[in-house]
């Protein structure tokens, strides 16, 4: 069964089990999905509310973007488990001849890159959620301001968790240019994380 089609209680139990998946990457994606969902909820509960007439179009755009991120995050939760299984299959390839060794090495390197890029996309999407959380907190239904702020808190957690998974997979990749490029992109995103989260948290006074 697809991970995200499970009941919450079963998903959490599977995470706690002796099985390696779902693991940190899937949890990062789920955390990111809930962050986007909270921002989306604020938009949905701002529609048609008295006093918020002027922000309806912004809330509609927020809802559309948050829904897209939420759905993609759930897909990535499953993808993270899938790439782990592909990696394990690559490790299990035969290595009796030079040709088999070369094939196995190439498969492992390809799997490492896939295993890095799935959580990288999770982190990138979670980072995009900050703007949605800020808009929800500033202009959305103010009865739900803390939900908008929690969206940002979850987004930060998702970025940090996802990028940890990226880095552990980068450590096995021999393509130095690939590693340098992805690392630079992560560093640029992480540079602003604390400030962005703090700015949104400060909206609740």
UniProtKB/TrEMBL annotation:
InterPro entries: Cyclodeamin/CycHdrlase (IPR007044), Formintransfe-cycloase-like_sf (IPR036178). The keyword Signal does not apply. It comes from the Bacteria. Keywords: Coiled coil. Residues 9-187 form the Cyclodeaminase/cyclohydrolase domain. SUPFAM superfamilies: Methenyltetrahydrofolate cyclohydrolase-like. Residues 52-79 form a coiled coil. This is Methenyltetrahydrofolate cyclohydrolase. It comes from Veillonella rogosae JCM 15642.
């Amino acid at each position: 069964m697809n991970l995200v089609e499970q009941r919450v209680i079963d998903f959490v139990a599977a995470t706690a089990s002796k099985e390696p998946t779902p693991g940190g990457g899937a949890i990062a994606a789920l955390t990111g999905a809930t962050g986007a969902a909270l921002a989306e909820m604020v938009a949905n509960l701002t529609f048609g509310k008295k006093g918020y007439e002027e922000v309806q179009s912004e809330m509609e755009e927020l809802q559309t973007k948050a829904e897209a991120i939420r759905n993609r995050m759930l897909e990535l939760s499953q993808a993270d488990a899938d790439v782990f299984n592909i990696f394990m299959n690559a490790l299990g390839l035969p290595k009796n001849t030079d040709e088999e060794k070369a094939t196995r090495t190439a498969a492992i390197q390809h799997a490492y890159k896939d295993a890095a890029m799935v959580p990288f996309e999770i982190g990138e999407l979670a980072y995009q959620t900050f703007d949605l959380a800020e808009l929800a907190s500033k202009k959305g239904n103010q009865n739900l301001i803390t939900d908008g702020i929690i969206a940002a808190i979850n987004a930060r957690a998702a970025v940090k968790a996802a990028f940890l998974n990226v880095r552990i997979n980068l450590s096995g990749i021999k393509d130095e240019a690939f590693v340098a490029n992805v690392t630079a992109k992560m560093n640029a995103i992480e540079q602003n994380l604390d400030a962005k989260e703090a700015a949104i948290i400060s909206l609740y006074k």
